């Protein structure tokens, strides 16, 4: 049975700061027409350039899913996009006055709540579904990350992570239906290891990071120099 495309009924605005830039940002989620897909609009730039959330525009995934089109960037796009996909939304316009969406609490929860408050409605067009007919796989030899798509009569996403640390060990998760995203996945928050914090600071990142929007796993002894860096990262709350 064919499924109808969906968008939101009305626009809704969220305020916050970007995780890596630390910049204050206003982001407005707006309804979009059929076959539009997801797209960001940089209203802070001349001409309000549009960056579609397409794989061809992904330039970096090391510290977030970062997009770039004609020199215009969107950083850390994954949380708001995950919320839209998790609610089965197909068409959405995301107006933003900075390069990075607000991090909120580091999860998709607040984006889920905003989209539901705006309301979701069906549109007069069917969804075009891609049917996997053979095994498709890709492995990044540098990071070791691997993705495999396999034909199946049922929808299922299974993921496994191993950061080579005893603190977390190997973890697995399975999503059997997208309708479970809100309950099972949306609250999952951004995290980092303590040893990564210093590197991120040295690379001028996580300017908007604090313990309200990220979880930090302590995986090393805290030296005096590390404490000084952490005070900078966490706004001197430790």
Main β-sheet, spatial strand arrangement: 2-3-9-4-5
Tell me, briefly, the overall form.
globular
At the first level of CATH, the class of the largest domain is: Alpha Beta
Poorly predicted runs: none
The number of E-state strands comes to 16
CATH superfamily of the largest domain: lpxc deacetylase, domain 1
- Rg, rounded, reads 19 Å
Q: Pairing-aware structural class of the strands and helices? A: alpha+beta
Terminal CA distance reads 56 Å
How much of the sequence is in beta strands?
25-35%
Count of runs of 4 or more consecutive helical residues: 5
Largest sheet, in brief, is: 5 strands, mixed
Average pLDDT, all residues: 87
Order of helices and strands: EEEEEEEEHEHEEEEEHEHEH
Q: What is the number of independent domains?
A: 3
Note down, in words, how this protein is organized.
With 238 residues, the chain is α+β, with helices and mostly antiparallel strands. It folds into 3 domains: 4-124, lpxc deacetylase, domain 1 (Ribosomal Protein S5, domain 2); 144-184, no CATH class; 191-233, no CATH class. Helices cover 18% and strands 32% of the residues. It contains 5 helices and 16 strands. Strands 2-3-9-4-5 form a 5-stranded mixed sheet, covered by helices on one side. A 3-stranded antiparallel sheet has the order 6-7-8, with no helix packed on it. Strand 4 (38-42) and strand 5 (50-52) form a beta hairpin. It is globular.
Give a brief description.
The chain is of the alpha+beta class and 238 residues long. It has helices at 78-86, 109-118, 181-184, 194-202, 224-233, and strands at 4-8, 12-17, 24-31, 38-42, 50-52, 58-60, 66-69, 72-74, 92-96, 120-126, 136-139, 146-149, 157-162, 170-175, 191-193, 215-217.
